[in-house]
Structure formats: C-alpha cells, structure tokens
Amino acid sequence: MKRICLFSAAILLAAAVPYAQAGTSLGLASGYNVFVLGAYATPGSTDIQGSVAVEGSFTATGSLSVNEVPGSGSPLPAGIVVGGSLSLAGGQLDNTNAGGAYVGQNVSSSSYFNFEHNLNYGGTLNGSNIQVDGSYNVASPTPINFSAAATALTQLSTSLEGLTANGSVVVNGSTYTLTASGCTLCVFDLTGGSFVGSAINISAPSGATVVVDVSGGSDSFTSGSINYSGGVTANDTIFNFNAATTLTTNSMTIYGSILAPHAAFTGTNGSVDGELIAGSVTGETAELESGDIFSGNLPPAVAPEPATWLLMATALLACSVIRARKARV
C-alpha cells in the first residue's frame, strides 16, 4: 500500500508539470514574431516581418503586410494562424517558404489581398478581393493548440516573475542601468509604471539569457531607448510583464522580446524588434520586426497549480487513513 501511494503521488506530480522542457521555453510561440492569446485589431497600415498567430479574430482595417522574413524563426508552420475570423483591408502574405495561412473561421477582405501560398480556412470565404497563389483548403484545422499555449505561457511568465534577481538596477533620473556579471541566466527586477524618455541600458555577459521582470498592472514606454553592452544581445532578452493588464509603447523601438500573457498591448508608431506575446492587441500601428527573435534559454516552468498540490495532499492523506485502518484491524 505504501508503494502504491508513493507511486500515485509521483504520477500526480508528473502531471503537474506538463510544460517543463529544456532550452528555449516559449513552446508553441517559439519563432513567431507575434503570438496573441486573444483578439488582434489594428487600424492602420501594419507591417509584420515574421509570422503571426492569433487565438481570436484578426481584424486589420488598414493595409497588412506579413513578410515572414526567411530565417526569422523556425520551425514556422504558417505565415498567419488565426483561430477566429480574418478580416482584411488589403495587403499581402509574402509566404512562399512555409505553409501559408490557417484560419479557423471566415476570411474576407474589403480590398485586394494576395496570399502567396496556401489558404486553409474553416468557415466562409469572401473571395472577390482575395487572390491565392497556392491552393484553397476548406475546413483544415489550425496547427496550434492555443488553449495549451495560453496555459504554458502563463505558467512560464509566473515562473519567471518568481526568479530571484541576480543583477543590479541603478536609476539616475530617466536612465536605468541594469548590470549583471558571472551569470548565464541574468535576472533583473524593474519597477513598472510610465517610462517617458527613459534609457534602459542592459549589460550582461555574452551568451547569457536576460530576463527583465517588470512589475505593475499598467506599463508604458514612450520615446525612450533600450541599449545593450557586455556581449548580451536583444535576441537573448525577454521582458516579462506578469502582472500587466495593459501595456503600451509610443514612438519607441523595443529591442528584445515581450512576454505579457494577460496584457492588452497597444503600440503607436515605433516598433517591437523581437517576439511579441500578449493577451490581446488593439489599436496597434507600430511595426513588428523579426530581427531579434528570441533565442535565449529559459528555465522550465515547473511549479504545479495550487489545485494540483491540494489533490496530491488529499491522495496522500487518504492513503494514510487506509493504512491506519488496516493497522487497527
């Protein structure tokens, strides 16, 4: 009986950590320029250099260009993946080296839009303004389990937020100097809020992965800069906004990747040069560039949910009660 109880507890503990994995830990979001766990709405002309995945509906009321720059990330199953409907106002998906577009529901465009590869969709197609250079495939499933991705990315963000900082943050006016040495995983705690005209200078060793945990429920970055020294690069850096419900950038380039699974993101002018992972995107007019797609190594998110700990404790308690009764008999 004791062995059976211990074996059962081990199974429960293993089930509690289904997303633990070595190396780069962005899971299903790895390699995507934009990965959105809700809806995406953009009012202006939008340029996305890499691939984009949206769990909800994707609405572009201005011209949309998805270029999928070769080598911007791999593996990439498609240039556009949308769980809901895709509503366009002209543009193109320059996607000759991947699987085309996957849309779970309807596809429409008010102006000419060119899919330069396959179009897979599960609803209706308003094809009068749409050209497809590849094949039309009806009712093809999307290649992403967005529910699993949301769970994994939320757990990852919480896990990163719980890391102990091993780098220093010195604030001098609007200049933030983040310095770490002798680390392969360099962690900084940055007090969130409104950053206006701020310079964020990050110094860490070459080859290190940098995690910047930014606190606050509402964070904004306006007309500032992000600079690197010491050998570390933007490809190795991720800004983690675990508590943020709103995140805005204005007239600024964010060099590095953003992990904000609960946040509604709005980028006005400027750009994000890295991966953008957000709860939703609205009012976005910033360019989304893929030159600094994340290539760092993050620790696995292994913390079980509280409910799992409770379930495991209950199972062990039940085993103890059974053993005690047998002992009395």
Question: Brief description of this entry?
Answer:
The protein is of the alpha/beta class. The chain contains three helices and 30 strands.
What this model shows, in words?
The chain is α/β, with parallel strands linked by helices and 329 residues long. 16% of the residues lie in helices and 37% in strands. It is built from 3 helices and 30 strands. It has helices at residues 2-15, 146-161, 306-328, and strands spanning 34-36, 40-42, 46-48, 52-54, 58-60, 64-66, 80-82, 86-88, 91-93, 101-103, 107-109, 113-115, 119-121, 130-132, 136-138, 168-172, 175-179, 185-190, 194-196, 199-203, 209-214, 218-222, 225-229, 237-240, 246-250, 253-255, 257-268, 271-273, 276-282, 287-289. The strands form 4 sheets. The protein has an 18-stranded parallel sheet that branches. The longest helix is centred in the last third of the chain and has 23 residues, at 306-328. It starts with a helix and ends with a helix.
